[in-house]
Here is the input.
Amino acid sequence: MNIPEELKYTKDHEWIRIDGEIVTIGITDFAQSELGDIVYVEVDTLDETLEAEAIFGTVEAVKTVSDLFLPVSGEIIEFNEALEDAPEQVNEDPYGSGWMVKVRCEDLSEIESLLDASEYKTLIGG
Here is the structure.
């Protein structure tokens, strides 16, 4: 299971890459493997400002649809439009080309409550 050390994680299996006040968000390798083949990613909250834990979109796999929860409060400033034509990138490269949204974080202190890689490994039984 791939769990990059430099990222932060949520109990809902999203990962967060921090670059100043901009954070990139996707789902973890564990999440994509549990979901199976991803066929559609929907984010209809572009340009909206949401609170942490709000649903910002959904990911649809062959057998299920799962909500995506925003790990931090902020404005969704970018959606990975490549996923519209190639949602399988989430399965193939969840931490790279399979990223989902970029958010301008309103309160960077919220990141402190997220899990680090070792805590996330414990959560998923690794």
